[in-house]
Design a protein that fits this description.
The complex is a heterodimer of chains A (73) and B (427).
Chain A: H1 2-19, H2 43-56
Chain B: H1 2-43, E1 62-72, E2 90-101, E3 106-119, E4 122-126, E5 135-138, E6 143-158, E7 161-172, E8 175-188, E9 193-206, E10 221-237, E11 240-253, E12 261-264, E13 267-270, E14 276-290, E15 295-306, E16 311-323, E17 327-338, E18 366-381, E19 384-398, E20 416-426
The chains are: A mainly alpha (73), B mainly beta (427).
Chain lengths: 73, 427
């Protein structure tokens, strides 16, 4: 699992760098609150693409945990 | 003289108090002004959730319906065994979602999907005639299958975070999967930093069909998978958001494909994969809004590694363009490249010493690109706000698209079209 430790340590570096980024005040968040700034603006579209990619490619999805089912043909 | 001096000091003190009081009132007014700005800017956007952030339970009911037609390309004649089936899968997909708030702290969502699948699917690969490229043997009969998937999730919202629970089931005539998840997020640094994490598990039972006709297929097998993820989101400017997350999954049990064979020393043999798999993904997502263009850039990159010696890179780029406050256009591109599993081969001239074998194109080395265009519009009738959308996606995979050079392409690589229409109602 050497590769997992390597990726984990790089992720930690990125996380620490981000935590020091500039702070945006609550009344400066108009653009950030836009719906098209969401990580996944359309939950059904996300679910469909995750299922297709799971069925046709070998990789694990990113982000949250859970989900299942085959549809593996 | 002294009285005059006292009067002017008292006037100055009163003025100072008045100014302090005005500043206090301005501060008190500011949150509602901010809230108004957030709400009005979100309301102006068509087609998407009114809530971009997950800081409170849904304040409205939202229902979504999508119908998608997924159609795989026919395989080229030169890639299929002589006289074999060339047509592949077509799938009609209906999706439905309902979301509402039960209180100002609790939100629930139900997601349902039903798929009707028909067509032929890759079975095994044989050496090509006269030493040419390998060719695909497809399943002999047209397969008709249905899959129904249901997912129930609930979130409890706190001042600076939320906790979520999810449970789901997926049912096919030969496959049953039950899954659950538990997650949470916590905001820090004036809500500029969000730490999230969660765990999930899925327990699957496979009961392959036609075992009388194909006696080497197992009658019943199980597999389990467990996953854990951790993510960090950071606001890096008034218009920019960044998130990075790590996910690990451990799968154990029957991880082979009971419907696929591998051609070993001239004989088709059952697909045999390791009984364990450890998978790891690192996803980084970037969002940037360009006010002058009224558009938002989405960029995602994912690195994937596993202990079957596979790795992959995925790049996704999207642009969300809002026009006249009620039309949205979303062109997007995706590139994907994967290496092969260490026990994969298109066919085997001799059995491997560890007994593993698979010629599944999904474990082969390949690259793929896809492009997609979505158009959506918003309109209002009575107290309902509707969003209607239409999207078309084209996906092409090929060994030549892989980042690394590929010696022999698997003939079963898939290309497809995906057409989707959708309707969302909020009230």
């Amino acid at each position: 699992m050497r590769w997992a430790r390597r990726v984990g340590s790089r992720w930690l570096l990125v996380a620490l760098a981000c935590a020091g980024c500039s702070s945006v005040r609550p009344w400066e968040r108009e653009a950030l609150a836009r719906a098209d700034m969401a990580w996944d603006p359309d939950p059904l579209d996300k679910a469909l693409h995750q299922h297709i990619q799971f069925s046709k490619e070998a990789s694990l999805d990113g982000g949250g945990a859970g989900g299942g089912g085959c549809g593996c043909n | 003289m002294i009285r005059l001096e006292r009067q002017s000091r008292a006037a100055a003190r009163r003025a100072r108090l008045r100014r302090r009081q005005e500043r206090r009132l301005a501060r008190a007014r500011r949150p509602s002004a901010v809230l108004h700005a957030l709400t009005s800017s979100a309301l102006a956007l068509p087609g998407l959730s009114l809530r971009a952030s997950a800081e409170s339970a849904p304040t409205e009911v939202r229902t979504d319906y999508r119908f998608s037609r997924y159609a795989e390309d026919k395989l080229p004649g030169g890639k299929v065994a002589v006289g074999g089936e060339r047509g592949r899968y077509d799938i009609d997909i209906h999706q439905f979602r309902f979301e509402t708030g039960l209180s100002d702290r609790i939100g629930v969502a139900i997601e349902l999907a039903h798929e009707a699948m028909s067509g032929a699917t890759p079975w095994y690969v044989t050496p090509g005639p006269n030493g040419g490229d390998p060719v695909q043997v497809m399943t002999q009969a047209t397969i008709e299958e249905r899959r129904t998937d249901a997912l129930l999730s609930s979130s409890y919202y706190l001042e600076r975070g939320k906790a979520s629970l999810g449970a789901g089931v997926s049912v096919e005539n030969d496959y049953l999967a039950v899954n659950g998840s538990l997650g949470g997020e916590r905001q820090f640094n004036e809500k500029n930093t969000t730490l999230s994490g969660g765990v999930g598990a899925s327990v699957d039972r496979i009961t392959p069909s036609d075992t009388n006709q194909y006696p080497t297929r197992p009658k019943e097998e199980d597999k389990q998978s467990y996953d854990v993820f951790v993510g960090l989101g950071q606001v890096v400017g008034r218009n920019t958001n960044l998130q990075s997350s790590l996910k690990y999954q451990h799968a154990t049990g029957f991880l082979s494909d009971p419907y696929k064979l591998a051609f070993v020393a001239g004989n088709p043999e059952t697909d045999e994969r390791p009984s364990q798999r450890n998978q790891f993904s690192w996803l980084t997502r970037y969002r940037h809004h360009v006010s002058t263009l009224d558009g938002t850039l989405h960029f995602d990159y994912k690195l994937y590694l596993d202990d079957w010696n596979m790795n992959s890179h995925t790049f996704e780029l999207g642009w969300y363009q809002t026009l006249w406050d009620r039309i949205r256009l979303v062109p997007s591109l995706r590139y994907y490249s994967q290496s092969q599993a260490d026990f994969y081969a298109p066919f085997y001239t001799a059995p491997r010493s560890d007994g593993l074998r698979s010629s599944d194109y999904r474990l082969s080395p390949f690259g793929a690109y896809s492009w997609r265009i979505e158009a959506a519009t918003r309109f209002q009738t009575w107290s309902f706000v509707w969003d209607a959308s239409v999207a078309w996606e084209r996906y092409v995979s090929d060994a030549d698209l892989a980042i690394q050079s590929v010696g022999v392409e698997n003939p079963g690589l898939v290309s497809f079209n995906l057409f989707t229409v959708g309707l969302t109602a909020r009230f």
